Amino acid sequence: MRIWIFKMSHPVRACRDEGGRSARHRQAVPAGGRGPPGLRRSCASPLGTAPSRPSRARERCTKPRRPRHPADYPQDPGEACTPATQAANTGNGNDALPGALLANTATRKSGQEAGAAGAGRRRRAPSPASPSSSDWSELPPITVNQLIDCRNHNLEFKETMLRIKNRSESNHQNLVQVLNEMKYKITETADASGNLLEGKVSVLRENETLPNGFEGLKLFLPHLRTAGNMYPVVATGKGKSGVTFALGITTIDRRNHTYLKQTLTSVLSRMTPEEEEDSVVIVSVADTDGYLNSVVDMVKTKFKRQVQSGSLEVISIPTLFYPSTLDKARVDSESWQIKQALDYCILMLYAQPKATYYLQLEDDIIARQMYFTKMKDFVNSLTSKNWLYIEFSVLGFIGKLFQSKDLLDFVHFFLMFYKVKPIDILLNDIFLVRMCNLGEHLGSCIRRQKGVRIQYRPSLFQHVGTHSSFPGRKQYLKDIFY
């Protein structure tokens, strides 16, 4: 017995005969035919005619397959294979899907899309730190006693924090009270110190004003730490201060070869009265009392006007400033070098509070005509005050102009190394120390010296002495730029 299979546009199920055997034959039924006898009417066309275009799907009438989605279930069990469904598959010879199956297909697609989206949300990967159910199952159960202990610990922690808070507030109040007491004590001490300082200043003004720079010598000269008030002896002078320029000259006894009178004549005579009034010349005698007396007599006789006006002063350096190793200063060149450095430092400390600028000279030089006017005009023409010193002569320490505010730094540097090098060499070293950067090439550092180590040309001072202050030495140094 043959079984006829009709091919429809919608999924169909294969019909079975009474014996339950299925057929997969795709033999077309002639138009107007009824098909083989025994074919169930539910699978045949209502009119008994075969569709004009065979379908590619099969329909299983006796045992419908399980749908893949709940939306595929028909509301009526007979809807899966009914004459109406079969009739809807054929019409005008077209493959159009029936309306019911189209609705089922749309419902199935929408349900599948919603299911896929829900599955995507449900299938989100769990966090690595989240324990699995098996991990939780391995943990021991929490007992009631453990919960009570945990609650007690929390209560104890809260009480501890409350005590700490109260203690912190109490400490804060105590600290504020102590600070207020300290402020009150500091105010009282400052008032008392101010009154005491005013009393000291008034006492010093009645007697003598002592610069504080000399107390710094005790840091570098241990033999002075047990000394009292240290100050040079003012042989003659009016205590002139508040001027623009202070000119310092150190001198010692050269026996029958002295140049001090020639030097003072050149320096003082080439000033105008206004320039003389705005300056002070300080002669520092660093030698025996016999030479000091001769110098005082000479200046009072030859430069009486300048002495009376206070423009010329003579001071003497007491022997307590020098260490005991300088007893043979005229024999040992090293001791002579040390004494020279100390003489310059003491003279700088004495002149520092008197003027704005300090000019270092020696006792065997002469000055150029109108040297003071040229020096003053050149200093006033400088737009920057960031210079270390100005050279008005290239020889040694002659003609070096400093700002008085920097003199303490220079003196301290000289006192640190006065036993190692001569003072004119130390003057070059302080430039390298203060101006050259770490690791910088010396050539590039020296090229930057023009702004801080200024050289004036032509030189305003010339060296004229041939007999050195060191016994038995002669020198014929001349400034080529004079």
Looking at the structure, what is the overall shape? elongated
Order of helices and strands: HHHHHEEHHEHHEHEEHEEHHHEE
Task: State the share of residues found in helices, binned by percent.
Answer: 40-55%
Biggest sheet layout: 8 strands, mixed
Would you state the CATH class of the largest domain? Alpha Beta
General description of the model:
The chain is an alpha/beta fold and 482 residues long. It folds into 3 domains: 116 residues, no CATH class; 62 residues; 247 residues, Spore Coat Polysaccharide Biosynthesis Protein SpsA, Chain A. Helices cover 41% and strands 10% of the residues. The protein is built from 14 helices and 10 strands. An 8-stranded mixed β-sheet has the order 1-4-3-2-5-8-7-9, sandwiched between helices. It has a two-stranded antiparallel sheet with strand order 6-10. Helix 10 runs antiparallel to helix 12 and helix 12 packs across helix 13. It is elongated and about 115 Å long. About 17% of the residues have low confidence.
